Amino acid sequence: MPASQHQNPKSDIEIAQAAKMRPIMDVAKERLGIEAKNLEPYGHYKAKVSMDYINSLKGKKDGKLILVTAISPTPAGEGKTTTTVGLTDALNHIGKKAMCALREPSLGPSFGMKGGAAGGGYAQVVPMEDINLHFTGDFHAITSAHNLLAALIDNHIYWGNALGIDSRRVTWRRVLDMNDRALREIVCSLGGVANGYPREAGFDITVASEVMAIFCLAKNIDDLKERLGNIIVAYTRERKPVRAKELNANGAMTVLLKDALAPNLVQTLEGTPAFIHGGPFANIAHGCNSVSATTAALKVADYVVTEAGFGADLGAEKFIDIKCRKAGLKPDCVVIVATIRALKMHGGVAKNDLKKEDLKALEAGMSNLQRHIENVKKFGLPAVVSINRFSADTDAEIALVKEKCKALGVEALMADHWAEGGAGAADVAKTVVKVIDEGKANLKLLYPDEMPLFEKIRTIAKEIYRADDATADKSVKDQLKAWEEMGFGKLPVCIAKTQYSFSTNPDAKGAPTGFNIPVREVRLSAGAEFIVAICGEIMTMPGLPKVPSADSININAEGKVVGLF
Asked: Which of 7, 238, 289, 313 has its CA 20 to 30 Å from the CA of residue 382?
């Protein structure tokens, strides 16, 4: 058996810090044909590709688009980003011209639940510490643009409120790129007349911001500015919407975002080019990198590997029904990532017992993978299953997964890119190319634009989650109807829901049935052009766990970051 995860003594950050990175100017020129004049370097190993150059690519033929998604995540780990990086390296390893397009990690989970998010083992993007921390400042720009708008709203009310904003109906919350539960609900403008009118408010995490969603869906600077202007920030006493452009906010917001809008170019450990740009969460937003990065990658590479957040029920559904719908993208193949460990966990095995062979639990857990495969097929897309190898995987377990997948009409392959880099995922790469060459992809959106908003929510709940129905109070349904009357009825919907289950109960593993999806709240993202439906007990400002990753992150005597994954 090849080397596999947990047999290598080095941590991800140690592997990344030992890497011999190439100057990013050389990577851009030699691998993508992008000249130095079209790059804005951020040191030696990061650069932004100019929007002028990206705009000049219009008319060039697109490469093939590969979407990487996964089973419902578990504490056992699946490795979706690692697979995205490893598969891209593997495509180059077998002689193809490939690059990947990924999301930027949020500081919230980097210091909260899981540490870094730049891949793992020998399938990483580098410089790993930069990518996981401040990177090129994109998220800071998004945070600043969002909070500038919040400040302008309160300032407008303070100086006479010419627009007649009802301070009780300000819908624009503030954001921070950190998990901070104490800021979920706040009262602002305390301290007397000089500080304005006290009102209830709150914070979301930056990656849940509508500005982030707009940033990732905007095609160019003009589209960005227009979308920012269309953000509805409040309502008057007569329930008339107030938009950001009425506050003259979108021009200044665009100025803060103009540099950030250009995609960031970095490299993998094997020198493969990678765009890392934008990063909305998939459980509370649409969960995929920027349209500008994906479309640019398709112009400069023959194969582009991108990922959608969490399981296919969240990330892939939103990638298709929101991003593909708006940007005209059409994936040629979907790779569904799983581990035998995670499948056994979906079959009821406790985390501490995952190293033991358990074919019965594995077969039960396959129900989760099966449902994701079925869902991908509903979108008219061919699938390949990539199983991340772990040292405890047995031959019998591997054979069972392959047999079950074959019965579902998809091929499952073992991948060892974590330990071996691109060479470890060569079989997956060859199969993906074969599937693409068969030309069977025929993208189908799940619902038409004309379907009523609540019916769109219900369609996702029934078709993708396999719920009996979606439920909502009269106030929620009335709000959706009001938005339809305002002209927003054709927008897609973005479900905010736990990533750990098809249901809204995070403990319901496998493929649960016999449940409803309760819609607790709906939010209109008029600039991003989708409706957010908040289902169950999902939080748009996460909290830190009892022992956050921040506890182990430090800097050593040599000035190196330690403990970041």
From this structure: 289
